[in-house]
Amino acid sequence: MAQRPTDNIGKYLHNFPGGLKLRHHKALSCCKPLPARYLPLSTEYCIPVSQHLGQPAEVVVSVGQQVKKGQALSTPGKTGNAPGAFVHAPTSGEITAIEKRPVPHPSGLNSLCIVLQPDGKDRWVELEPVDDYRKLDCDELIQRVQAAGIVGLGGAVFPTDIKLQGTSCLINTLILNGVECEPYISCDETLMKQAPGKIIEGALILCHVFKIEKVIIAIEDPMDVCNLELEQSISEFNAGDCVEVIRVPMLYPEGGERQLIQVLSGHEVPAGQLPISLGILVQNVATVAAIRDAVIDGIPLIERLVTVTGAGIREPQNVHARIGTPIADLVDFCGGYTAGIARLVMGGPLMGLGLRNDQLPIIKASNCVLALTHADITSTQPEMPCINCGNCVSVCPAGLLPQTLQTVIRAENFEALESLNLDACIECGCCDYVCPSHIPLVDYFRYGKGEQRAQAKEKQESDIARLRFERREQRLEKQQAERLARHQRRKRALAGSSSKKDSVAAAIARAKARKQVLAANQPDTNSETGKGENS
Ligand code: SF4
Ligand code: SF4
């Protein structure tokens, strides 16, 4: 029998191309305090309806309406094919506005938000816990995950129910991604220390429903405490025969889904395919804990752990923040800013999103609020021409040619991007980091991807228009042919009826002629009678 890629997964560790060894900066926030604290209620929550990959959710509440904590505010849209996700109220209170507001998004554009003013009572909507998850089937589990609005909490924010729908029973290995490889971010590490049982129970739920044989929890080498906590929890759940913790060396971006699979299995996920093609499902540890809460307690995703850190924060730490909380409230809770604050970022220093201000809300993707000081920011030098040093090529974990991609994008030759595999770029920022010419390569790649998407959309629209035109032409041709056929039929029918008339006339003429002949040959009865009378 042929060996499956998952047969030896985790037995040996492998390498992926490129990558960077970076200073971690995690000690700043990682252990202080544990368990992580909960933020007090804010005076207002601004909840964007589009916090996931896919189409925006449809608002199902109105201004002035009173809502309860955990109540659905918007539901996945019913139009189009793109996935969607539920969004819920982070506390009870009144909806005071539904309007476009600034949100953390690379476009910098305002987006539709539901604004909630808390009533201070924090009253839950009625939850529907489950006594025994083993009674759930695949569809029921997926329905619960969808109703809870769970998305990938590692940063991808892809709706988890859609990811699970594509899973069916083809998976034999579940990888729980606890490799938080980007500097500063430590929310997953905190979760693994604080609530390992939730992660193990979430994994067991997925194993039960999808008949998964093996679970690997991947953590980074220095995460000793996590390892201990997870191992203890595995034995408490008696899950040692299927769940295993594996420590991988520290190398950025090892937490990328494809890179982690390569490290654990030695196999590359083929370009354009998903990990399922290797029989593997990868979930972030926080996502699996959220699945556990949704399935067992019926609790929707209304909060997440956020690392608030950087030299620009007085008391860096991890906090439980409700979705929609203003970032300023998190910063205040962590002692405020230090004097040298220079830049605010949502996420890590390499893949994070620069924020315009701290009034923007925490969203499901917010794993970290990073306040950098002037001393942290090195790349303020202007962009210089490429010197073809090749540094960017040697660190690219996707095996791409960043300098060629950049040249092609500058030349606006977007058609060439497909063959250069720009889609495979995970925007890890390794190339940016090592470029001696300070070229903002990732910005170019995001722009290039945006143009590719726009062109693909344009092509799709023109294909639809062409198809519509061709169908109309075919319809007109068909109508014309039918008209012609009808006309010919009528003509034939007319021709047929005139020949029928002729034959009727001929028959009448023949009958008349026969009558005349008969009349001519008939004896003169009048004369015979006369003869008789005379005689
Ligand atoms: S950002 Fe993209 S091109 Fe640059 S190193 Fe990462 S994967 Fe490669
Ligand atoms: S690292 Fe910068 S300068 Fe060097 S080849 Fe890449 S883009 Fe050019």
Q: Beta-sheet strand percentage?
A: 15-25%
Number of strands: 17
What is the mean pLDDT? Answer: 90
Low-confidence parts, pLDDT < 50 over ≥5 residues? 525-535
CATH fold description of the largest domain: Rossmann fold
Structural class: alpha/beta
User: Which H/E pattern describes the elements?
Assistant: EEEEEEEEHHEHHEHEHEHEEHEEEHHHHH
* Distance between the first and last residues' Cα: 129 Å
Report on the biggest sheet.
Answer: 6 strands, mixed
Shape: elongated
CATH architecture designation of the largest domain: 3-Layer(aba) Sandwich
Describe the structure.
The protein is α/β, with parallel strands linked by helices and 535 residues long. The protein folds into two domains: 37-346, 3-Layer(aba) Sandwich (Rossmann fold), CATH 3.40.50; 379-470, no CATH class. Helices cover 36% and strands 16% of the residues. The chain has 13 helices and 17 strands. The protein has helices at residues 138-147, 160-165, 187-194, 196-210, 224-236, 257-265, 285-297, 327-333, 391-395, 402-410, 430-434, 441-521, 525-534, and strands spanning 37-38, 45-48, 58-59, 66-67, 72-75, 87-88, 93-102, 110-118, 173-178, 214-220, 243-248, 280-284, 303-309, 317-322, 341-346, 353-354, 368-373. The strands form four sheets. Strands 1-14-13-17-15-16 form a six-stranded mixed sheet, sandwiched between helices. Helix 3 runs parallel beside helix 5, helix 4 packs across helix 7 (285-297) and helix 10 packs across helix 12 (441-521). It is elongated and about 140 Å long. One iron/sulfur cluster binds next to helix 9 and helix 10.
